[in-house]
Amino acid sequence: MTRISCVSKLKSIAILSTILLLIPAGLFGQGPSKTSFEFSYDYFPYQKLSEAEQGTFYEDLEIRVQKFNFEISHPLVFSRGRTILINNFGYQRLEIDYMNWDEVEGRDEPRVDDLHALSYTLFVRRVIDNTWSMAFLFNPGIASDFKGALMLEDFSLQFGAIFSKQFSSKFALGFGAIYSTQFGHPIPLPALSFQWNNGSNLRANVIIPVNMEFWYDASERIDLGVLMKIDGNEFHADPEIYGYDNPNFRFADAMIGPAAEMRMLPWMKVNLYGGYTYLRYFEFYNNYYEIAGYDPNNSLFFRAGLTFER
Prior knowledge:
With 310 residues, the protein is mostly beta strands. The protein has a single domain, classed as Porin. Helices cover 7% and strands 61% of the residues. The chain is globular and about 65 Å long.
């Protein structure tokens, strides 16, 4: 497989991740019933580059990534539960640290270290009959280094429709399409999901191909699971700092590993997730042309979070 085809496929995955992960997975079932506040922290340790050019400082360069996430979701229920409206506000800070960066050899290389993303998602779900429901998504966002004045390229927009069929009390299937400007030009994307449970203590929630969750209810307070997730975005950077007319940084992390949710109080949960990455993509572009690549090696990762409900 050529590098161009790899980047193209990875780009599609990153687009899907930034769009479909904004859809609350529970909406394909009954939907959430409480307002929630979630804080989480992701840590990816220093790793060398996967394709460092020999004879350059890239051979010794190592990159560490930390993510700080905050999310608020507020559901409103109408028509005796047949219509659910969810307002979701999200913020993410991406902090990138470099070890062994050569200030002389790397003086002309783009170095991105602090990025921010803000998003608002309006999700409306309407029950049509006993088996069918439909949902509409509207999601404007900003992703930028915030080191200069905001430009049109800092903004993105996603919207779409999802239809879901409840085949039984144990299985539901959702499908639809999302329209996105996330990566600079309009792209229509398919969306497919399903939910399953065994009627007791096992359940699965899947949004193909970016989110797969398998859970075991160990007790009333502890859930154990295995998760596969993809997180990605495109951030616009300041043209005056980097010397390009439309500089942008694209990243994606694909992760798999065990997870645990522990309800410490009726209104508070502790969320833990860790494991290994199987795909990492860090590229600096000007418009649609790649300027520099900093893809780190796959590594261990860890996420810790708190969820408050009321």
